[in-house]
Amino acid sequence: MIAFLMNLGLSSPQFKPDVAELFDDFSDMVYRIVFARVRHSSDAEDVFQDVFLRLVKNINKIKSYEHAKAWLIRCAINRCNSHYTSAWQKKTVGFDEYYGECDLSYEQIELLEAVRSLTAEHQEVIHLFYYEGYLGKEIAGILGVNENTVKSRLRRARLELRSVLGEEGNLGTE
Q: In the predicted model, what is the mean pLDDT of residues 118-132?
């Protein structure tokens, strides 16, 4: 198996990460994660830039293409968490001002508000599962938690979303 991965260049000791290539491949994903967490485009752009500046500083620590993807996701989540604790963040923008920036339907706004009402842990697993398409095992690796923890968080987040939205609809399975 290791030989197969080495032939693909995924676990090769000769892997030479290229910041421009990684930016091209993962910038959309990182921005979606950041924007979903910080809720405002200018703040999202600041955090987004910080994530890729950190990539440039730590490029020698990247071991493979998949490691780069997981590293960027984890870094984006950590930078968003730091953003919330900054002194600047004490002055926040209301939802009305935020919704003026985007063209969303009423149902999309309602779903967005419901997801944002979840805890940060539940928002993370919902985003990684539904928007990024990761499976429970992959999310566990990215977040550094047990796979059963991810399943539990997904289940609780779905239940909470159902109660907030007042629906019995299917939110997907693991």
A: 87
Global pTM value: 0.56
Q: What domains are defined for the chain?
A: 17-102 (1.10.1740), 104-168 (1.10.10.10)
* 3-state SS record for 63-131: CCHHHHHHHHHHHHHHHHHHHHHCCHHHCCCCHHHHHCCCCCCHHHHHHHHHHHCCCHHHHHHHHHHHH
CB 64 within 8 A of CB 10: yes
Owner of token pair 């979303």: 161
Give me the half-sphere count of Cα atoms (radius 13 Å) on the Cβ side of residue 56: 8
| Burial label, 168 (beta-carbon count in 10 A; 0-12, 13-18, 19+) | exposed
What is the per-residue pLDDT for 4? 41
